[in-house]
Amino acid sequence: xxxxxxxxxxxxxxxxxxALIIEINLLPLVFTKxxxxxxxxxxxxxxxxxxxxxxxxxxxxxxxxxxGIVHPHxxxxxxxxxxLVHNAxxxxxxxxxxxxxxxxxxxxxxxxxxxxxxxxxxxxxxGLHRAHQMYGxxxxxxxxxxxxxxxxEGFNVSQSLASAISQLEADKIEGRIRDTFIPDGQALRFGSxxxxxxxxxxxxxxxxxxxxxxxxEEIEKEVQANGGVLNREDIRNYSVEVQQPLxxxxxxxxxxVPPLPSxxxxxxxxxxxLETLHLWENDVTENQTSRWxxxxxxxxxxxxxxxxxxxxxxxxxxHLSALISKGQAAGLQQRMKDVLQLLYASNxxxxxxxxxxxxGQVVIMGPDDLIVSVASSLNRPFGSRIMTESGIILNSLxxxxxxxxxxxxxxxxxxxxxxxxxxxxxxVMVPTWNKCGTYMALSSSGGTNRLNEVTKVCSDLKGxxxxxxxxxxxxxxxxxxxxxx
Length: 485
What we know:
Layout: E1 4-8, E2 18-24, E3 34-37, H1 40-51, H2 56-70, E4 80-87, E5 92-97, H3 124-135, H4 140-153, E6 155-156, H5 159-170, H6 176-181, E7 193-194, H7 197-205, H8 207-212, H9 214-225, H10 232-236, E8 241-243, E9 246-250, E10 253-257, H11 264-275, H12 286-301, H13 315-324, H14 326-331, H15 333-346, E11 360-365, E12 370-377, E13 427-431, E14 437-443, H16 447-460, E15 478-483
Parallel strand pairs: 2-15
Antiparallel strand pairs: 1-15, 2-14, 3-11, 4-5, 4-12, 5-8, 6-7, 9-10, 10-13, 11-12, 13-14
């Protein structure tokens, strides 16, 4: 019998956390589709893909491309991302990492204030294409045409986009990006109608043309005109990484997150710390629980500087193993308690790093047993703020190598081909013991403040799935609760 769906949508802020929860009690597994994203137009496009027989990954690809069109300040083909795909029937999970990489020429100049030097190789389009090769059902052209049609037909400016455009106006940005979003000196406002036929053409020209043709040359020209070093060889040589997720047991579930250079290990470490406290077996208030979560995240995040891209520094594997081990959690309890005392003394809560990023988020649970969570980003609003002739807004990925609130100003070295540590956080939680039980897929908009929200949602899962309060507006942007009849 198909499960019943109880939809509980919450919309509360720009850059939210989104989640889907499904309860499965009987075999064979029966899924009813569920879709959430950051924009209603993209959610509708994803649902249409599923209705037309597309796979959950097909739907996620369309959703991610759609967000790059309607929220160009957040993501797009000039950026990168991470997709996590879990096959519930086979109990197999893959991570498709298409986060961008540093140019071959390693800049020694200070990237702050130099937009061109902040641009890394965009991995978005190639990564989504790789996901389609692995899990696609509809043709690639079918998928592309749906996003291209939206770009060509146009859409209304959302509140999120309008807010980002107003910041462009305040910063007196010049060039193509101003001409597009502040035409004739008049900034597009909430509800304004905009068409992007230029992006439609980029999508329709194809992946090969993007990475090995005129578009790569166009990107090279634009970046170098703005003082950068990225060239067409960097773009041509870019490759997508297919990885195994990091996994850890949390109470009666297994949490699956992207491996390095994603900072998913911080989420696992924080949950391990919380598990040692047995908060839900004790009489602990919601406010007290929130403080413990803040303390756990701050304690785990203090170790993040030891992480990075393992292809360039094998020692990070040892640091990773220590960070996510249950034994390490027990050893960090006292440090977490010290942090908690400081939080109470200062009456403060966790705050984001200065390099907090915005992220486009899509989560899909389709009828094909696939659970998909994808996060994509330009790294900061409008990325580098450089727009090519074809309308592609380029990322500011390289800024993720530099953390201005760290004493040294440098978290990890910027090396040619290296991928920076990222807080893109698509995640899946599955039952530990068998296929029956509660499944959850979620994504965060990046940075430690959104990681805080993801941790709260994950930690609240135990024993509270039937309670709508578990997904309160302070924690989750959009949510669907799936429960058995």
